[in-house]
Amino acid sequence: MDFSRFELLPNEILIEISDYLDARDTYYAFYGLNLRLNALLLSLDRLYIYIHYNGRSRIRHDHLFALRVHTLIIDRNRLLDNLQQFPNIRHVIFIKSFEKKIEHVINQLNNLEHLTIKVKGQGGASRSIYQRIFTNDFPCLKSFIHKASHPPSLTNTWTQTPSIHFLDVTSDFSRIHMFLAACPNLHFLKITIPKLAVTLADLKQHEKLQRLHLTITTDQLSFDELPFDSLFVCLPKLEYLYLQQSIMNIDMINNLKQSQWLANVLARHLLSLRQFKLTLCLSANQHFDIQQLKTNFSKAPFDSLFVCLPNLEYLYLQQSIMNIDMINNLKQSQWLANVLARHLLSLRQFKLTLCLSANQHFDIQQLKTNFSKAHDQRYEHELKII
Protein backbone atom coordinates (compact mmCIF):
# COMPACT_ATOMS: atom_id res chain seq x y z
CA MET A 1 0.00 0.00 0.00
CA ASP A 2 1.23 3.49 -0.87
CA PHE A 3 1.83 5.60 2.28
CA SER A 4 3.80 8.32 0.50
CA ARG A 5 1.02 10.87 1.01
CA PHE A 6 -0.52 11.84 4.34
CA GLU A 7 -4.12 11.28 3.29
CA LEU A 8 -3.29 7.70 2.28
CA LEU A 9 -2.32 6.67 5.81
CA PRO A 10 -4.75 4.25 7.52
CA ASN A 11 -7.24 5.61 10.03
CA GLU A 12 -5.46 4.01 13.00
CA ILE A 13 -2.27 5.98 12.31
CA LEU A 14 -4.14 9.24 11.71
CA ILE A 15 -6.00 8.81 15.01
CA GLU A 16 -2.72 8.17 16.84
CA ILE A 17 -1.20 11.31 15.30
CA SER A 18 -4.17 13.34 16.50
CA ASP A 19 -3.47 12.19 20.09
CA TYR A 20 -0.33 14.34 20.05
CA LEU A 21 -1.98 17.46 18.64
CA ASP A 22 -4.03 20.22 20.23
CA ALA A 23 -7.65 20.04 19.04
CA ARG A 24 -7.30 23.47 17.44
CA ASP A 25 -4.25 22.44 15.44
CA THR A 26 -5.88 19.17 14.40
CA TYR A 27 -8.98 20.85 13.03
CA TYR A 28 -7.26 23.86 11.53
CA ALA A 29 -4.79 21.60 9.71
CA PHE A 30 -7.02 18.82 8.42
CA TYR A 31 -10.71 19.72 8.57
CA GLY A 32 -12.15 20.44 5.14
CA LEU A 33 -9.41 18.71 3.14
CA ASN A 34 -11.63 15.80 2.12
CA LEU A 35 -14.70 13.88 3.25
CA ARG A 36 -12.72 11.03 4.77
CA LEU A 37 -10.66 13.32 7.03
CA ASN A 38 -13.79 15.26 8.01
CA ALA A 39 -15.55 12.07 9.08
CA LEU A 40 -12.47 10.87 10.95
CA LEU A 41 -12.10 14.15 12.86
CA LEU A 42 -15.77 14.17 13.80
CA SER A 43 -15.37 10.68 15.29
CA LEU A 44 -12.67 11.74 17.78
CA ASP A 45 -14.14 12.09 21.28
CA ARG A 46 -11.11 12.58 23.60
CA LEU A 47 -9.51 15.76 22.29
CA TYR A 48 -7.40 18.11 24.37
CA ILE A 49 -6.64 21.84 24.38
CA TYR A 50 -3.34 23.29 25.64
CA ILE A 51 -3.56 26.88 26.88
CA HIS A 52 0.05 28.11 26.98
CA TYR A 53 1.09 31.10 29.06
CA ASN A 54 2.08 33.09 25.96
CA GLY A 55 -0.34 31.48 23.53
CA ARG A 56 -3.86 32.22 22.37
CA SER A 57 -6.65 31.83 24.91
CA ARG A 58 -9.72 32.44 22.72
CA ILE A 59 -10.65 29.55 20.48
CA ARG A 60 -12.15 30.22 17.08
CA HIS A 61 -14.50 27.81 15.27
CA ASP A 62 -14.94 25.80 18.47
CA HIS A 63 -18.34 24.60 17.24
CA LEU A 64 -16.46 22.00 15.20
CA PHE A 65 -15.01 20.17 18.19
CA ALA A 66 -16.24 21.78 21.43
CA LEU A 67 -18.39 18.83 22.50
CA ARG A 68 -15.51 16.38 22.05
CA VAL A 69 -12.87 18.14 24.16
CA HIS A 70 -12.08 15.86 27.10
CA THR A 71 -8.87 17.38 28.54
CA LEU A 72 -7.81 20.96 29.23
CA ILE A 73 -4.15 21.80 29.94
CA ILE A 74 -3.45 25.24 31.44
CA ASP A 75 0.17 26.42 31.58
CA ARG A 76 0.91 29.14 34.16
CA ASN A 77 -2.07 31.42 34.76
CA ARG A 78 -3.50 31.85 31.30
CA LEU A 79 -7.26 31.19 31.27
CA LEU A 80 -9.61 29.97 28.59
CA ASP A 81 -11.96 32.84 27.74
CA ASN A 82 -14.92 30.72 26.64
CA LEU A 83 -14.69 27.72 28.97
CA GLN A 84 -18.47 27.35 29.08
CA GLN A 85 -18.40 26.26 25.44
CA PHE A 86 -16.76 22.95 26.44
CA PRO A 87 -19.29 21.09 28.62
CA ASN A 88 -17.63 17.67 28.35
CA ILE A 89 -14.25 18.49 29.86
CA ARG A 90 -13.44 15.73 32.35
CA HIS A 91 -9.71 16.19 32.97
CA VAL A 92 -7.84 19.41 33.80
CA ILE A 93 -4.06 19.68 34.09
CA PHE A 94 -2.58 22.80 35.72
CA ILE A 95 1.12 23.59 35.24
CA LYS A 96 2.62 26.22 37.58
CA SER A 97 -0.78 27.84 38.18
CA PHE A 98 -1.82 29.87 41.23
CA GLU A 99 -4.53 28.69 43.59
CA LYS A 100 -7.07 31.36 42.62
CA LYS A 101 -6.76 30.49 38.95
CA ILE A 102 -7.22 26.81 39.72
CA GLU A 103 -10.35 27.44 41.75
CA HIS A 104 -11.73 29.75 39.04
CA VAL A 105 -11.53 26.92 36.51
CA ILE A 106 -12.65 23.93 38.58
CA ASN A 107 -15.65 25.86 39.91
CA GLN A 108 -17.04 25.78 36.37
CA LEU A 109 -16.59 22.04 35.89
CA ASN A 110 -19.28 20.13 37.76
CA ASN A 111 -18.45 16.80 36.11
CA LEU A 112 -14.67 16.87 36.63
CA GLU A 113 -13.25 13.33 36.82
CA HIS A 114 -9.47 13.87 36.83
CA LEU A 115 -7.51 16.75 38.34
CA THR A 116 -3.74 17.16 37.95
CA ILE A 117 -1.70 20.01 39.48
CA LYS A 118 2.04 20.30 38.76
CA VAL A 119 3.99 23.01 40.57
CA LYS A 120 7.34 23.67 42.21
CA GLY A 121 7.48 24.41 45.92
CA GLN A 122 4.24 24.38 47.92
CA GLY A 123 1.99 26.17 45.45
CA GLY A 124 -0.97 25.14 43.37
CA ALA A 125 -3.20 23.13 45.68
CA SER A 126 -3.62 24.68 49.11
CA ARG A 127 -5.48 23.53 52.19
CA SER A 128 -8.77 24.90 50.84
CA ILE A 129 -8.55 22.92 47.58
CA TYR A 130 -7.69 19.73 49.48
CA GLN A 131 -10.62 20.44 51.79
CA ARG A 132 -13.01 20.66 48.85
CA ILE A 133 -11.66 17.55 47.15
CA PHE A 134 -11.81 15.36 50.24
CA THR A 135 -15.23 16.54 51.38
CA ASN A 136 -16.84 15.43 48.11
CA ASP A 137 -17.29 18.83 46.47
CA PHE A 138 -16.47 17.07 43.20
CA PRO A 139 -18.62 13.92 43.37
CA CYS A 140 -17.43 12.61 39.98
CA LEU A 141 -13.69 12.94 40.73
CA LYS A 142 -11.86 9.65 40.13
CA SER A 143 -8.22 10.73 40.38
CA PHE A 144 -6.23 13.56 41.94
CA ILE A 145 -2.54 14.22 41.23
CA HIS A 146 -0.61 16.98 42.98
CA LYS A 147 3.08 17.16 42.03
CA ALA A 148 4.89 19.57 44.37
CA SER A 149 8.29 19.90 46.04
CA HIS A 150 6.74 20.34 49.49
CA PRO A 151 3.41 19.16 50.93
CA PRO A 152 0.69 21.70 51.75
CA SER A 153 -0.42 22.29 55.32
CA LEU A 154 -3.43 20.06 56.00
CA THR A 155 -6.02 19.77 58.75
CA ASN A 156 -7.92 16.60 59.53
CA THR A 157 -11.44 17.95 58.95
CA TRP A 158 -12.26 15.96 55.83
CA THR A 159 -15.30 13.76 55.37
CA GLN A 160 -15.18 11.25 52.51
CA THR A 161 -14.90 11.21 48.72
CA PRO A 162 -16.04 7.73 47.66
CA SER A 163 -15.48 8.35 43.93
CA ILE A 164 -11.66 8.70 44.12
CA HIS A 165 -9.77 5.57 43.02
CA PHE A 166 -6.29 7.01 42.36
CA LEU A 167 -4.18 9.47 44.38
CA ASP A 168 -0.67 10.77 43.67
CA VAL A 169 0.38 13.42 46.21
CA THR A 170 3.34 14.84 48.11
CA SER A 171 2.79 14.37 51.82
CA ASP A 172 4.34 13.51 55.16
CA PHE A 173 4.17 9.84 56.03
CA SER A 174 2.11 10.84 59.07
CA ARG A 175 -0.74 12.02 56.78
CA ILE A 176 -1.35 8.71 55.04
CA HIS A 177 -4.18 7.84 57.42
CA MET A 178 -6.07 10.99 56.30
CA PHE A 179 -6.04 9.97 52.63
CA LEU A 180 -7.05 6.39 53.38
CA ALA A 181 -9.91 7.46 55.63
CA ALA A 182 -11.19 10.05 53.13
CA CYS A 183 -11.12 7.65 50.15
CA PRO A 184 -12.80 4.37 51.11
CA ASN A 185 -12.72 3.11 47.49
CA LEU A 186 -9.10 4.03 46.79
CA HIS A 187 -7.27 1.39 44.70
CA PHE A 188 -3.91 3.08 44.01
CA LEU A 189 -2.01 5.42 46.34
CA LYS A 190 1.27 7.14 45.42
CA ILE A 191 2.95 9.19 48.14
CA THR A 192 6.16 11.21 47.81
CA ILE A 193 7.72 11.83 51.23
CA PRO A 194 10.08 14.85 51.22
CA LYS A 195 10.85 15.33 54.90
CA LEU A 196 11.10 13.72 58.33
CA ALA A 197 7.71 12.88 59.86
CA VAL A 198 7.48 9.18 60.65
CA THR A 199 4.72 9.00 63.23
CA LEU A 200 1.49 7.41 62.09
CA ALA A 201 -1.93 7.88 63.64
CA ASP A 202 -4.22 4.94 64.25
CA LEU A 203 -5.43 3.49 60.98
CA LYS A 204 -8.69 1.79 60.20
CA GLN A 205 -8.79 -1.27 57.99
CA HIS A 206 -8.82 -0.32 54.28
CA GLU A 207 -10.23 -3.17 52.22
CA LYS A 208 -9.90 -1.65 48.72
CA LEU A 209 -6.28 -0.48 48.38
CA GLN A 210 -4.37 -2.79 46.02
CA ARG A 211 -1.38 -0.69 44.95
CA LEU A 212 0.95 1.41 47.10
CA HIS A 213 3.90 3.43 45.82
CA LEU A 214 6.09 5.23 48.39
CA THR A 215 9.02 7.46 47.38
CA ILE A 216 11.43 9.09 49.84
CA THR A 217 13.24 12.16 48.47
CA THR A 218 15.43 13.03 51.45
CA ASP A 219 18.70 11.46 52.59
CA GLN A 220 17.69 12.10 56.21
CA LEU A 221 15.15 9.29 56.18
CA SER A 222 15.24 5.68 55.04
CA PHE A 223 12.61 2.96 54.77
CA ASP A 224 13.79 1.08 57.83
CA GLU A 225 12.74 4.09 59.94
CA LEU A 226 9.12 4.02 58.80
CA PRO A 227 6.44 2.23 60.86
CA PHE A 228 5.44 -0.22 58.15
CA ASP A 229 3.94 -2.64 60.67
CA SER A 230 1.29 -0.07 61.62
CA LEU A 231 0.56 0.67 57.96
CA PHE A 232 0.55 -2.78 56.35
CA VAL A 233 -1.56 -4.42 59.04
CA CYS A 234 -4.43 -2.20 57.80
CA LEU A 235 -3.95 -3.06 54.11
CA PRO A 236 -4.87 -6.76 53.84
CA LYS A 237 -5.71 -6.58 50.11
CA LEU A 238 -2.45 -4.94 48.98
CA GLU A 239 -1.12 -6.72 45.88
CA TYR A 240 1.51 -4.33 44.48
CA LEU A 241 4.13 -2.55 46.58
CA TYR A 242 6.76 -0.18 45.15
CA LEU A 243 9.32 1.46 47.43
CA GLN A 244 11.82 4.00 46.11
CA GLN A 245 14.62 5.74 47.99
CA SER A 246 15.63 8.60 45.71
CA ILE A 247 18.74 9.60 47.67
CA MET A 248 20.89 6.86 49.14
CA ASN A 249 24.41 6.52 50.49
CA ILE A 250 26.43 3.39 51.15
CA ASP A 251 25.71 3.36 54.89
CA MET A 252 21.98 3.33 54.23
CA ILE A 253 22.38 0.42 51.81
CA ASN A 254 24.44 -1.55 54.33
CA ASN A 255 21.83 -0.95 57.04
CA LEU A 256 19.08 -2.04 54.70
CA LYS A 257 20.96 -5.24 53.85
CA GLN A 258 21.83 -6.19 57.40
CA SER A 259 18.37 -5.84 58.89
CA GLN A 260 15.57 -8.33 58.24
CA TRP A 261 12.85 -5.81 59.00
CA LEU A 262 11.36 -5.61 55.52
CA ALA A 263 11.12 -9.35 54.92
CA ASN A 264 9.56 -9.84 58.34
CA VAL A 265 6.96 -7.10 57.82
CA LEU A 266 5.92 -8.42 54.42
CA ALA A 267 5.62 -11.94 55.80
CA ARG A 268 3.44 -10.83 58.71
CA HIS A 269 0.94 -8.65 56.91
CA LEU A 270 0.96 -8.70 53.08
CA LEU A 271 -0.29 -12.19 52.39
CA SER A 272 -1.92 -11.09 49.10
CA LEU A 273 1.23 -9.46 47.71
CA ARG A 274 1.85 -10.32 44.06
CA GLN A 275 4.54 -7.80 43.08
CA PHE A 276 7.25 -5.99 45.03
CA LYS A 277 9.72 -3.41 43.66
CA LEU A 278 12.52 -1.73 45.57
CA THR A 279 14.54 1.01 43.86
CA LEU A 280 17.59 2.55 45.54
CA CYS A 281 19.23 5.58 43.90
CA LEU A 282 22.79 6.34 44.99
CA SER A 283 24.04 9.88 45.52
CA ALA A 284 26.31 11.03 42.70
CA ASN A 285 28.74 12.80 45.04
CA GLN A 286 29.41 9.73 47.18
CA HIS A 287 32.57 7.62 46.94
CA PHE A 288 31.89 3.89 47.19
CA ASP A 289 33.94 0.82 47.81
CA ILE A 290 32.94 -1.00 44.60
CA GLN A 291 34.11 -4.37 45.87
CA GLN A 292 32.04 -3.96 49.02
CA LEU A 293 29.04 -2.86 46.98
CA LYS A 294 29.46 -5.96 44.80
CA THR A 295 29.57 -8.16 47.87
CA ASN A 296 26.48 -6.51 49.32
CA PHE A 297 24.58 -6.99 46.09
CA SER A 298 25.54 -10.63 45.57
CA LYS A 299 24.84 -11.52 49.20
CA ALA A 300 21.57 -9.65 49.51
CA PRO A 301 19.17 -11.50 51.84
CA PHE A 302 16.85 -12.65 49.06
CA ASP A 303 16.41 -16.07 50.69
CA SER A 304 14.97 -14.46 53.81
CA LEU A 305 12.73 -12.19 51.77
CA PHE A 306 11.44 -14.55 49.07
CA VAL A 307 10.65 -17.40 51.43
CA CYS A 308 8.00 -15.07 52.86
CA LEU A 309 6.44 -14.34 49.44
CA PRO A 310 5.21 -17.66 48.05
CA ASN A 311 2.61 -15.98 45.81
CA LEU A 312 4.96 -13.46 44.18
CA GLU A 313 4.37 -13.43 40.41
CA TYR A 314 6.39 -10.44 39.14
CA LEU A 315 9.91 -9.49 40.24
CA TYR A 316 11.97 -6.53 38.98
CA LEU A 317 15.52 -5.88 40.19
CA GLN A 318 17.71 -2.95 39.18
CA GLN A 319 21.36 -2.33 40.02
CA SER A 320 22.00 1.36 39.31
CA ILE A 321 25.80 1.28 39.60
CA MET A 322 27.65 -1.65 38.01
CA ASN A 323 31.04 -2.40 36.47
CA ILE A 324 32.16 -5.34 34.37
CA ASP A 325 33.67 -7.24 37.32
CA MET A 326 30.37 -7.11 39.17
CA ILE A 327 28.55 -8.38 36.09
CA ASN A 328 31.01 -11.25 35.61
CA ASN A 329 30.53 -12.20 39.24
CA LEU A 330 26.77 -12.07 38.79
CA LYS A 331 27.00 -14.20 35.64
CA GLN A 332 29.25 -16.88 37.06
CA SER A 333 27.32 -17.48 40.25
CA GLN A 334 23.96 -19.21 40.17
CA TRP A 335 22.85 -17.68 43.46
CA LEU A 336 19.95 -15.67 42.12
CA ALA A 337 18.57 -18.38 39.85
CA ASN A 338 18.83 -20.86 42.72
CA VAL A 339 16.99 -18.54 45.11
CA LEU A 340 14.15 -18.03 42.62
CA ALA A 341 13.88 -21.79 42.06
CA ARG A 342 13.75 -22.52 45.79
CA HIS A 343 11.12 -20.02 46.85
CA LEU A 344 9.19 -18.31 44.03
CA LEU A 345 7.20 -21.20 42.63
CA SER A 346 4.45 -18.83 41.42
CA LEU A 347 6.86 -16.54 39.57
CA ARG A 348 5.63 -15.56 36.09
CA GLN A 349 8.05 -12.77 35.14
CA PHE A 350 11.55 -11.75 36.24
CA LYS A 351 13.40 -8.68 34.92
CA LEU A 352 16.94 -7.66 35.84
CA THR A 353 18.27 -4.24 34.80
CA LEU A 354 21.99 -3.47 35.08
CA CYS A 355 23.36 0.04 34.62
CA LEU A 356 26.96 -0.05 33.42
CA SER A 357 29.67 2.56 33.53
CA ALA A 358 30.05 4.33 30.18
CA ASN A 359 33.70 3.28 29.78
CA GLN A 360 33.05 -0.46 30.09
CA HIS A 361 33.31 -2.82 27.09
CA PHE A 362 31.96 -6.37 27.13
CA ASP A 363 30.11 -8.99 25.10
CA ILE A 364 26.44 -8.16 25.63
CA GLN A 365 25.17 -11.11 23.62
CA GLN A 366 27.24 -13.59 25.60
CA LEU A 367 26.05 -12.05 28.85
CA LYS A 368 22.41 -12.38 27.81
CA THR A 369 22.94 -15.95 26.63
CA ASN A 370 24.44 -16.96 29.96
CA PHE A 371 21.63 -15.21 31.81
CA SER A 372 18.99 -17.04 29.77
CA LYS A 373 20.60 -20.43 30.36
CA ALA A 374 20.78 -19.88 34.11
CA HIS A 375 17.09 -19.20 34.62
CA ASP A 376 14.16 -21.51 34.64
CA GLN A 377 12.03 -21.60 31.49
CA ARG A 378 8.84 -21.82 33.55
CA TYR A 379 8.84 -18.02 33.99
CA GLU A 380 9.48 -15.18 31.58
CA HIS A 381 12.89 -13.58 32.18
CA GLU A 382 14.70 -10.58 30.70
CA LEU A 383 18.12 -8.99 31.17
CA LYS A 384 18.36 -5.31 30.26
CA ILE A 385 21.68 -3.47 29.96
CA ILE A 386 21.66 0.34 30.06
Automatic annotation (TrEMBL):
Against PROSITE patterns, the record matches this protein to:
FBOX (PS50181)
Stored InterPro entries: F-box_dom (IPR001810)
Domain F-box as annotated: residue spans: 3-51
What is the recorded name of this protein? F-box domain-containing protein
